[in-house]
Amino acid sequence: MGQHLLPVRLWDTKSQLPLQTLNGHQHWVLCIAWSHDGNKIASACKQGIILIWEYDSDTNKFRLFKKLTGHKQWINALAWRPLHLEAPSRLLASAGRDASIRIWDIIKSHTLFVLSGHTASVSALQLYLEILFFKVTDIRWSGNDLIYSGSQDRTIKVWRTNDGVLCRTLEGHAHWINTLAANVDYVLRIGSFSPEEDSKQKQMSISNAQSVELFLWEPAIKKQPIARLTGHQQLINQVQFSPDGRTIASASFDKSIKLWDGWTGKFQTSLRGHVGPVYQIAWSSDSRLLVSGSADSTLKVWNMQKRKLGQDLPGHGDEVFAVDWSPNSECVASGGKDKVLKLWKR
């Protein structure tokens, strides 16, 4: 590693002191993703470089495991293959501003597939299988093996993964879709799933289309939204279901986080404390904590039982673009404009 490489720091949230410094990125860290077993972290920067960090049990520290290069512009999103399809985690998908999606074998540091049918950049994905001609802005892989994709064409499309056939198109948004979430995201990320057994829990998804409103869907069954969620005063950046599926959290440029009922879409409360736009949010595995990253350079941990701020985590030198919990909820990872990836220990 050269002398100009920028540090990645691991932090203890109780003492707020660094535990470890990792060198690697030379530009803004735009997205991060924990592997399903919690032993690896993928981080990507504005230079189009992905770094894979691996936990070393002998030293009790993370080390640089692999460096993946291939994207010609910055990377917008990372996603590990769902756990019930592959364990341990080996395949990683990345979406870039170069309008391509790459599927990587991280062990061999090799690109397995380059999906380059997009005519504009891809901003988020959850292991993409289907190439669209519109800019795909977000995507989710459901527990019943369907893929939901949101696009600039203002629609959500439901695809079969075994043959790529389009099952249905969900319409209603007036603008292009920029974020999409499903209520089984967490289950697919950390646990087994049996597609042969029908789940008693309805599989819901929620979407936002460059606006101040959200649509709640049951995409495997209905073509029309079952609820329209309004309340934000400025554009919504991200939306996430809690792992138990009971609550929806949305982050907005209006500096607030709003909570909604996960089944009906009914508004519950607003969480205020950030003094800048809220870019990303992430839930702990027990649905009791929510972490948020903001343009105000802070992370905030919210207590969901009290619906109040639990802990303020300053430390970044600039805007925080990406946050994520480890699968066991022991650590939070954050990255931002200061080119630093930080790990916060619970």
Describe the protein's architecture and organization.
Helix content is 2%, strand content 48%. The chain is mainly beta. It has a single domain (7-345), classed as YVTN repeat-like/Quinoprotein amine dehydrogenase (Methylamine Dehydrogenase, Chain H). The radius of gyration is 19 Å and the shape is globular. WD repeats lie at residues 22-63, 68-114, 136-169, 229-261, 271-312, 313-346. Keywords: Nucleus, Repeat, WD repeat. It is found in: Nucleus, Nucleolus. Its main location: nucleus.
Give the key terms:
single chain, mainly beta, Methylamine Dehydrogenase, Chain H, 1 helix, 29 strands
The number of strands is: 29
Radius of gyration: 19 Å
Query: What portion of residues belong to β-strands?
Result: over 45%
Give helix and strand order, one letter per element, not per position. EEEEEEEEEEEEEEEHEEEEEEEEEEEEEE
User: So, the CATH homologous superfamily?
Assistant: YVTN repeat-like/Quinoprotein amine dehydrogenase
- Report the sheet with the most strands, covering strand number, pairing sense and barrel closure: 5 strands, mixed
Gap between N and C termini:
30 Å
Low-confidence stretches at least 5 residues in length (pLDDT < 50)?
Answer: 1-5, 116-122, 124-136, 192-199
CATH topology: Methylamine Dehydrogenase, Chain H
- SS class: mainly beta
